[in-house]
Amino acid sequence: MAAERGSIDRALLWILGPAMAANLYLIFFYAPTERTMGLVQKIFYFHVPTAWVAFLAFFLVFIGSVGVLAARKESWDRLAEASASVGVLFCSLVLVTGPIWGKPVWGIWWTWDARLTSTLVLWFLYVGYLLLRSYIPDASRRATLSAILGIIGFVDVPIVYLSIRWWRTQHPAPVFAGGESSGLDPRMRAAFFFSLAVFTILFVVLLRLRMRGTALERRAEVVLEERRRSS
Fold first, then answer.
1. Could you give the angle at which helices 139-153 and 114-135 cross, rounded to 10 degrees?
2. What does the pLDDT average to over 15-37?
3. Where are the domains of the chain?
């Protein structure tokens, strides 16, 4: 099993390298420059995929948390912890790339807009989840309490997604809401979906690596606990 997992990881890394290079080519050379916003629009190809991954990661935190409470298996807890560890990185990128786009377009770095505020709440939920885990030494209690937070916190994900439909907001409307009539150039569409796939693969790679690291940390905890009891 370990050899098989290693083979999968190596295959994903071999795919990821060329895919990231191709992604940069599609973004900066293949996709045309948007007439109104100019080059700053290129952030779109990074901002939206990282937001998608941040949603996906917290969904896996939710799935893992449900698994913890339902099955009481360590593997579910490791999935939730690893996904939160990687997801907070992508959520941070969302909060960085958004203002970089917003400053030249809106004239300000930040506004307490419904979409921006709910995304910031999601980031705090990620951080709070990880901090909670770090402050609880007992593994069983840590898994249970963090699972409860992971399930409750997931409520914010649909709120972030639907915020621009529920409230008046400065955030742009969904690009693909109008389907083929949305006005997005086909080359932009191709570059966007390719970037979405690349960032998803990157997330899978980082998640698998983090889960392996988490498994090693758990083994170390068990060894240290056994030594403490025997001394």
1. 170
2. 93
3. 47-171+184-230
Per the CB < 8 A criterion, the answer to whether 136 and 44 are in contact is: no
Cα–Cα distance, 99 to 116 (Å, whole number): 10
Q: Specify whether the CB–CB gap between 43 and 28 falls below 8 A.
A: no
Are the C-beta atoms of residues 82 and 219 closer than 8 Å to each other? no
Question: Over 70: is that where the pLDDT of 4 sits?
Answer: no
First-last CA distance in the chain: 34
Nearest to residue 146, comparing CAs of 121, 160, 123, 125?
A: 125
Spatial distance between the Cα atoms of 37 and 177, rounded to a whole number of angstroms: 20
Confidence of residue 230 (pLDDT cuts 50, 70, 90): confident
Q: What is the C-alpha to C-alpha distance for residues 41 and 61, in angstroms, rounded to an integer?
A: 31
Q: What phi and psi values does residue 38 have, to the nearest 5 degrees?
A: 75, -145
Do 164 and 150 form a contact (C-beta atoms < 8 A)? no
Q: What is the pLDDT of residues 85-117, one digit of tens each?
A: 999 999 999 999 999 998 888 888 888 989 999
> How far apart, in whole angstroms, are the C-alpha atoms of residue 26 and residue 187?
8
CA torsion through residues 7, 8, 10, 15, sign = positive
Are 178 and 93 spatial neighbours (Cβ–Cβ below 8 Å)?
no
Q: Express each pLDDT in 141-181 by its tens digit.
A: 999 999 999 999 999 999 999 988 887 776 776 665 544 54
Other CB atoms within 10 A of residue 15 CB: 13
